[in-house]
């Protein structure tokens, strides 16, 4: 059965299930209430989202193998050296050569990855009934993505290779600073210039929802004067919301699927979570953590890159680490480090998400709205993973953890819930 057809039934079933269970127990039992919420998901839908999510584990491995294969193809086949020669014919100025190389590299890698990306981002999404996009729209988004990545990556590559040439011993430190700098620029520009390339953002139109959210924001010292809605339904059926921006461009955005498909209690619960990210300064904390991880990554990358180039540089037509044609080597090393580091980055993010969940429960006081939203997220996330799965693969608490947390909160705050909730 298709998820989309079941979706309207879920809230009804949930409304019936939660109070029934509470009555049956005589008192509110968090464990039973959690089970009741989880059981609102039809068996077939659960199998489907489990398969979708577990497939994603394997895709991470496939992506890594593919990235290594592309690097090997570029280096071993001498393509990378040829791209560098093209760039050198174009200009004598080193930074421009690096940028020209990077632009060619990105175009070539995008073309090589197109079949895999189309499978992951288009066919697989359609197979699981998650996508609203035509192939042409999807391709246009890819083209925009390529444009943005050239705009950011070409100068970043030029800066990193400038550092490698000027500071052969300490370039990993400069490289980390450059990567962090570009990340920060991306964060500042993201909501203002990049996100609007893919979706329409406009102030939330529903005055009731808008004023509720802004008052929730004020109550939690979030200096938001505007909340945005965007047409995520152009691409996907998923519900989501996010906090984005940095140093003055911060904003909370709700996707239209969330606004169309969910109840006011759910929207309040989701907003409480997003406000939690804001109030708990997660952007700054993540930036700090990722800067440390970047420094470690660049230190390891320098070590590995020097060894690889000393051994194979000649066969690959590279003139040393300072040769921008060595970019595929660095990219391959970061692909491996990123893969190995996934449980670490997932745990950093998941921990913050759990904090935001608790903050949101305290702020919005909508445990059932929160549980309902968690049930909806089960359309694209495995609801009840094993502990090791949650640790390795989850960048958010699992649905079961989230519902359990909400029901525990509800059990301990039943007395202060207004009547009728
Ligand atoms: Zn979050």
Automatic annotation (TrEMBL):
InterPro entries to which the protein is assigned, alphabetical: CAXX_Prtase_1, Peptidase_M48, Peptidase_M48_N
Gene Ontology terms describing biological process: CAAX-box protein processing
EC number annotated for this UniProt entry: 3.4.24.84
The keyword Ribonucleoprotein is assigned to this record: no
Pfam family, one: Peptidase_M48_N
Cofactor binding remark: Binds 1 zinc ion per subunit.
Name of protein: STE24 endopeptidase
Species name: Niveibacterium umoris
């Amino acid at each position: 059965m298709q998820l989309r057809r079941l979706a309207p039934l879920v809230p009804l079933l949930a409304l019936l299930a939660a109070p029934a269970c509470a009555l049956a127990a005589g008192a509110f039992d968090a464990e039973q209430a959690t089970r009741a919420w989880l059981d609102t998901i039809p068996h077939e839908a659960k199998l489907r989202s489990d398969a979708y999510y577990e497939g994603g584990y394997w895709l991470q491995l496939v992506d890594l193998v593919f990235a290594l294969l592309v690097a090997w193809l570029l280096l071993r086949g001498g393509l990378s050296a040829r791209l560098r020669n093209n760039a050198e014919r174009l200009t004598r100025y080193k930074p421009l050569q690096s940028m020209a190389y990077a632009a060619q590299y990105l175009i070539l890698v995008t073309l090589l990855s197109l079949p895999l990306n189309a499978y992951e981002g288009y066919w697989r999404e359609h197979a699981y009934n998650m996508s609203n996009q035509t192939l042409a729209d999807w391709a246009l988004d890819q083209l925009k993505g390529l444009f943005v990545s050239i705009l950011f990556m070409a100068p970043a590559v030029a800066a990193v290779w400038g550092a490698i040439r000027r500071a052969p011993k300490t370039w990993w430190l400069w490289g980390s600073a450059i990567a962090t700098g570009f990340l920060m620029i991306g964060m500042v520009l993201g909501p203002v210039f990049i996100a609007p390339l893919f979706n329409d953002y406009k102030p939330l139109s529903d005055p009731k929802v808008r004023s509720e959210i802004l008052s929730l924001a004020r109550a939690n010292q979030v200096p938001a004067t505007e909340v945005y809605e965007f047409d995520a339904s152009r691409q996907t059926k998923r519900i989501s919301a996010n906090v984005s921006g940095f140093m003055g461009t911060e904003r909370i955005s709700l996707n239209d699927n969330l606004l169309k498909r969910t109840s006011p209690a759910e929207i309040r619960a989701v907003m409480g979570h997003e406000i939690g990210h804001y109030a708990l300064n997660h952007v700054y904390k993540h930036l700090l953590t990722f800067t440390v991880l970047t420094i470690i990554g660049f230190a390891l990358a320098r070590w590995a890159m020097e060894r690889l180039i000393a051994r194979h540089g000649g066969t690959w037509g590279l003139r040393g680490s300072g040769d921008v044609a060595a970019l595929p080597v660095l990219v391959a090393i970061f692909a491996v480090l990123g893969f190995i580091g996934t449980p670490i980055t997932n745990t950093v993010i998941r921990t913050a998400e759990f904090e935001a969940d608790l903050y949101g429960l305290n702020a919005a006081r909508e445990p059932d709205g929160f549980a309902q939203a968690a049930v909806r997220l089960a359309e694209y996330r495995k609801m009840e993973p094993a502990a090791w799965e949650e640790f390795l693969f989850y960048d958010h608490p699992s649905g079961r953890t989230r519902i359990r947390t909400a029901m525990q909160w509800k059990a301990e705050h039943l007395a202060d819930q207004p009547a009728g909730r």
